[in-house]
Specification:
Length: 348
């Protein structure tokens, strides 16, 4: 069993695990296993399953995919790690009202997951005190990985006071900061510092600011004399090109220890943001964000196609051209050679 708190504190690449489907939009178990094997082999520090990138519709009874997909990912990761055991975080996305969220947390607990990434989208209009009660209840079953989701894809603005109080829940081990907003990102950093907790790992989910989040030594922002750093990332962007992301995070650690940051990191930060804009379909308000990731994985043979559970969900007009562009101009971000060398084994 992974010591989840100390493991997350070290900072890792945690991909948000996609859902591999057949042309009939049923689970493609062969490619689903291949994806998990890829993330383990690429050096990821864990996986997040049952999250937005796994498609929230998987919970619909007509699909009934939550339990089998969670089980498949946990079992495949465990098997892949037997030859070279190492700590590996299994994070389960937990959604819905409190009744549904508790049922999902129990399922994840029984399958050996290490923490619950808590989505608060179903409680969009609830007062913040109810959100905290909701989280405390889930924390009785699994350690808590908080999640600040941007309003553009179903999140809500949460005040500094909420995050300070959330950080004081003993079961909180980490927070994914993904409001895509610098002011709100700083509020979470300040809230955790002011809570007095020094054992909560901060992870970026800001796909538009990945590198800068990881490089920034935040100044004192409130009552605390020292602000925490963002240690790693739990990202849909890192569901692709994962091997390169792991290498980059190691390079970030070295750069962060240097007396000054080389200006070349600014260009690298912009390149990754540019690539993410194409994959996540920013031009069309993220409509093709899941299909964009699928397209990269399809090209690498890690997926058979870009199918989503919703037949109306796919690439937006002009998105394929944007993906072609960023792959061409930012080849240093890709890990095609690594995948090509191993994909047949992962698919076997």
């Amino acid at each position: 069993m992974t010591d989840i708190r100390s493991h997350l504190a070290r900072g890792h690449v945690i991909p948000a695990h996609p859902l591999a489907l057949t042309a009939a939009r049923t689970l493609d178990e062969r490619h689903q296993r291949a994806l998990t094997r890829y993330y383990v082999a690429a050096g990821a520090g864990g996986i997040a399953v049952g999250v937005h990138t796994t498609q929230f519709q998987m919970r619909d009874p007509k699909h009934g995919l939550l339990a089998p997909v969670l089980a498949l990912a946990a079992e495949t990761a465990a098997t892949s790690l037997r030859t070279e055991p190492r700590p590996f975080a299994r994070i389960a996305g937990v959604c819905g009202d409190t009744t549904q969220a508790l049922a999902e947390a129990r399922l994840a607990h029984d399958l050996g997951y290490d923490a619950a990434l808590v989505s608060l989208g179903a409680l969009h209009d609830a007062p913040e005190r109810q959100l905290l009660e909701h989280c405390r209840a889930i924390g009785e079953l699994l350690p808590l990985f908080g999640f600040y989701l941007q309003p553009a894809v179903g999140g809500r603005v949460l005040r500094y006071e909420f995050w300070r109080d959330f950080a004081q829940i003993p079961q909180v081990v980490a927070i994914k900061i993904a409001p895509f907003n610098r002011y709100q990102t700083l509020e979470v950093v300040r809230a955790v510092a002011d809570s007095g907790r020094t054992d909560i790992a901060l992870y970026t989910g800001n796909d538009d600011q990945i590198v800068l989040d990881l490089l920034t030594p935040f100044p004192p922002l409130g009552h605390s004399a020292r602000a925490p750093r963002i240690a790693g990332g739990l990202l849909g962007q890192w569901a692709v090109w994962t091997h390169r992301a792991v290498e980059m995070l190691e390079e970030v650690r070295v750069a962060s220890d240097a007396p000054s940051i080389d200006a070349g990191w600014l260009a690298r930060a912009a390149a990754l943001t540019d690539a993410n804009g194409a994959l996540f379909d920013v031009q069309h308000a993220f409509a093709g964000c899941i299909a964009g990731l699928h397209e990269i994985l399809r090209r690498q043979r890690l997926m058979a196609g870009i199918w989503c559970l919703d037949p109306n969900e796919g690439l937006s007009e002009g998105q394929i051209e944007e993906i072609d562009r960023v792959v061409r101009v930012h080849p240093e971000l890709t890990d095609d050679e690594f995948v090509a060398a191993h994909v047949d084994d992962w698919l076997s």
